[in-house]
Amino acid sequence: QVQLVESGGGLVHSGGSLRLSCAASGFTFNNYAVRWHRQRPGKERELVATISASGTYIYYADFVKGRFTISRDNAKNTVYLHMSSLKPDDTAVYYCNAKGEPDYWGQGTQVTVSL
Known about the structure:
This protein has 115 residues and is an all-beta fold. 0% of the residues lie in helices and 53% in strands. It contains no helices and 11 strands. The strands form 2 sheets. Strands 2, 4, 5, 6, 9, 10 and 11 form a 7-stranded mixed beta sheet that branches. Strands 1-3-8-7 form a 4-stranded antiparallel beta sheet, with no helix packed on it. It is globular, with a radius of gyration of 13 Å. The model has no long low-confidence stretch (mean pLDDT 96).
């Protein structure tokens, strides 16, 4: 069946780094652009970064530019989000989304950044 599974979240101190993974199965992952979104406590879900199906187009929200890097390995059906210089304000549930017809979403992974 179709699955998008995020992993790599956890608790990290301010200034630290984490790498999130989004592993896909059950659909033609290589045909899909993939987005990372996040939902901070009490806030609406927001787009963090996007990578095109081929990996040639990448977009970052202003609040993560220079700190986060999105990449993909189509041979492994996986997209990554490397997060560095983390701030407490980055605390959120991070979701990956394969953007297409239909859209697919993962269940989310919690990232908590402490002072």
